[in-house]
Amino acid sequence: MEKPGLRSDVWISSSFCGNAACVEVMRCGDEIQLRVTGDDRHLTFTTAEWQAFVAGAKAGQFDL
Predict the structure, then answer these.
(1) What pLDDT is attached to residue 2?
(2) Distance between CA atoms of 31 and 22, rounded to whole angstroms?
(3) Per the confidence metrics, is the pTM higher than 0.85?
């Protein structure tokens, strides 16, 4: 069962986003895609890469 919010073929953005320059994420098969809202260009990550990024973000590794 997929986690809520990481549905296939649907771009989602954070509920903290307040302007048009948000980051969006979407599951596409076994990959995760990342883009700036409305931009057709995107980055593609494996599930393992995405999980490592999320774990780092939750641990504060990217805090300014």
Answers:
(1) 45
(2) 20
(3) no
